[in-house]
TrEMBL record:
Transmembrane parts of this sequence: none
Organism: Claviceps purpurea (strain 20.1) (Ergot fungus)
Coiled-coil parts of chain: none
Top-rank lineage group of the source organism: Eukaryota
Domain F-box, chain residue ranges per copy: 188-237
Family matches, as InterPro entries: F-box-like_dom_sf, F-box_dom, LRR_dom_sf, TPR-like_helical_dom_sf
Protein name, UniProt field: F-box domain-containing protein
Length: 674
């Protein structure tokens, strides 16, 4: 009898292959599971017998559509235009859809997210109305950290099911939950959809280099940013230094790019030009910037020695209000390359209001100085060289700048009042509008007594509202201290009756860093300002004794001498410097300073430093002060990490901010007066 023919094993169905794939997936045999799911998709009827199976659509680009603010749902719903749509019919086989879902899950488990996204997109192609594809794509987009894309996918799924209530399906509810999770991305919009004023405000925070980088986003952005509508973005030519450029030369933009930028700025060219020290600018580039900007209002430039010059024969800048120039003018004649641009400033005299000179021309030291006449100048800031022995005359400045309101002198340690006879005749007419007087010297000792006489005279001007004197740092062992500019030491000029007494009836702020004032003299000086309820800021600097030492008894005596200032309601800013009290804050003497500060009901800002306190002692003192005051800010010297954490915690509980005091912090100029 012939052997019976073996029965032929039946081919597995799509359901069988999917079930086998699921078992392999649960056993974490992901590659085997992927092969089962792939076989299931290939035997779907929609493949029409092609062994490789039905291909995925290649003409739909969901992420690109989303980036262009298009509809992902419409992209999925529209008919396919590639081979997949022309050769193969639509497929509504549930097993095909299920195999795609499991295949995407398998690749996700293997960490192959981009391949997982391919199969998730295929799910969307087959069933754009179902939430499954959107959920799968959204999950993978989140794993790829494409959170905005994930939000747009969830939003597209909600759009596809907008006729269905959210609570009718658990999967639909997941779409709403996913969208809510990333709702912050719904506020991202193309900034050029906003009003032009808001667009200008947004891009005003960027430098010209950063704006040019924005050209790469797309052509519409480039056209918009260079259109006349946004010309104001190019009117501030501020060439910023980066943290990596310190000490290194930075090249300016090419001339052709500068011409384009000035063209984009529109009529009048740039309104503000700032060229810092480390920018390497050529004379042609500087000339182009200036001559193409007849409506220039602000110029800030560093002029290297013997290299650059500003136009001296042009009178085209009839709106120039502010100029800041840095160079080495004491070594170079005026109006030559690298020299002081005197004629340039003189030609702008009719409009110039603010001038900063970070180097003083040698000609200004002469007996008949050559200073441009600037009748409308309101603020003048000058920095010289501390070790220059030639006295700098002040009177010629009052002639050249008669309407000056703010004057700052730095590194000018030899000032002169000569000629004294003219001061005696004209003192009532000298700077009648001066409101701000600042003087700063970095050297430890100013030898020339004429400097103190000059400062005392300038401080006697009755229009002053803000006085700030700052002298160089002295070591604790230095037995000498600075003279009391406001009285207490014999001055043959200012104490002789030639000059007026100090009344200071309009004074709001008196800062005297490292320069002490006796309590009795301060009471006399400030009596009018206190009577007029104007005084808001004051520094108390504690002195040394006759042997150059600082003792607790001296500090106690000095502070008690200011009892007349206690409780003043107009004081909101105080400074306390170089005191030495008992470190025992439980004792009466140790609590003197906190108790004194607690009497000021409106005290909001405090600067507190002492060379005689360590980090731990100053921290304990500040914590004690915080307990009895309601300060907004405290400035102090740098404190070690552990002590800082204790202080920071105490300050946080009181709503107070702690700042490190730095002698290098440049003041805001001009000073903003109340």
């Amino acid at each position: 009898m012939p052997p019976s023919r073996a029965l032929k094993k039946p081919e597995p169905t799509m359901a069988d292959l999917i079930e086998s794939g699921r078992h392999s997936f649960e056993a974490k045999r992901y590659k085997q599971a992927s092969r089962f799911f792939s076989r299931a998709m290939k035997i779907c009827p929609c493949a029409r017998g092609v062994k490789s199976g039905r291909p995925k659509c290649k003409c739909k680009r969901y992420e690109r559509v989303a980036a262009r603010e298009g509809s992902i749902y419409r992209e999925a719903r529209d008919h396919c235009r590639c081979v997949a749509g022309k050769k193969y019919s639509e497929c509504d086989n549930f097993h095909h859809f299920q195999a795609l879902d499991f295949q995407s899950t398998t690749f996700e488990a293997m960490g192959r997210f981009y391949q997982a996204m391919v199969y998730a997109e295929w799910m969307l192609e087959l069933a754009p109305q179902l939430p499954d594809g959107y959920l799968r794509m959204g999950r993978i987009a989140r794993l790829l950290c494409k959170y905005e894309y994930a939000w747009k996918i969830y939003t597209a799924g909600i759009e596809a099911n907008k006729e269905t209530a959210a609570g009718s399906s658990a999967k639909l509810q997941k779409l709403y939950d996913g969208q809510k999770l990333f709702n912050r991305f719904s506020f991202k919009r193309d900034p050029f959809c906003l009003p032009a004023e808001l667009v200008a405000h947004v891009f005003s925070y960027l430098s010209y280099q950063e704006i040019i980088v924005c050209f790469r986003v797309c052509k519409p952005w480039q056209r918009a940013l260079t259109s006349p509508l946004h010309g104001q973005l190019w009117r501030n030519m501020i060439f910023k230094e980066s943290m990596y450029s310190f000490g290194k030369s930075i090249m300016m933009p090419r001339l052709d790019l500068l011409r384009k930028m000035l063209l984009w700025a529109g009529d009048g060219g740039a309104r503000k030009i700032v060229i810092p020290r480390y920018y390497k600018i050529t004379q042609p580039a500087l000339t182009l910037l200036l001559k193409a900007s007849p409506r220039l209002e602000h110029l800030d430039i560093h002029m290297p020695q013997r290299e650059l010059t500003l136009p001296s024969n042009e009178k085209m800048w009839d709106r120039l209000r502010s100029v800041s120039i840095e160079g080495r003018f004491e070594q170079t004649p005026v109006d030559v390359p690298g020299g002081f641009p005197q004629m340039f400033l003189q030609n702008a005299a009719s409009t110039l209001e603010h001038l900063t000179l970070l180097s003083i021309p040698e000609e200004w030291y002469n007996s008949v100085p050559s200073i441009p006449l600037l009748p409308k100048l309101k603020s003048l800031r000058m920095r010289g060289w501390d070790y220059k022995t030639t006295p700098f005359p002040i009177y010629p400045l009052s002639v050249a700048f008669p309407r000056l309101e703010q004057l700052s002198l730095a590194s000018l340690s030899n000032l002169s009042l000569e000629p004294v006879t003219i001061w005696r005749k004209e003192w009532e007419n000298i700077w009648p509008h001066l409101k701000v007087l600042m003087f700063q010297s970095s050297i430890t000792r100013v030898e020339d007594p004429r400097t103190y006489s000059t400062l005392r005279y300038l401080a006697s001007l009755n229009s002053l509202q803000y006085i700030h004197f700052k002298f160089g740092f002295r070591f604790a062992q230095d037995t000498e201290q600075y003279p009391n500019i406001f009285g207490g030491n014999h001055d043959p000029l200012t104490d002789s009756g030639i000059f007026p007494q100090l009344h200071l009836q309009n004074l709001r702020c008196l800062r005297s860093e490292r320069l002490w004032i006796s309590p009795d003299r301060a009471r006399t000086l400030l009596s009018n300002a206190i009577k007029n309820k104007r005084l808001t800021s004051f520094d108390i600097v504690f002195p040394k004794d006759i042997n150059g030492r600082v003792t607790a008894d001296d500090s106690v005596r000095h502070l008690k001498g200011y009892d007349w200032l206690r409780g003043n309601p107009t004081i909101h800013t105080l400074g306390c410097e170089d005191f030495s009290f008992s470190f025992d804050l439980e004792g009466e003497e140790g609590r003197l300073l906190p108790q004194f500060l607690a009497t000021f009901p409106n005290l909001r800002r405090l600067t507190i430093t002492s060379r005689y306190y360590g980090c731990t002692q100053i921290t304990q003192l500040i914590i004690e002060i915080l307990k009895v005051t309601h300060l907004e800010t405290i400035k102090t010297e740098y404190i070690g990490n552990d002590d800082f954490l204790r202080m920071k915690e105490a300050a946080r509980s009181k709503g107070t901010k702690i700042y490190w005091r730095s002698g290098q912090d440049p003041p805001i100029w001009p000073i903003r007066l109340e």
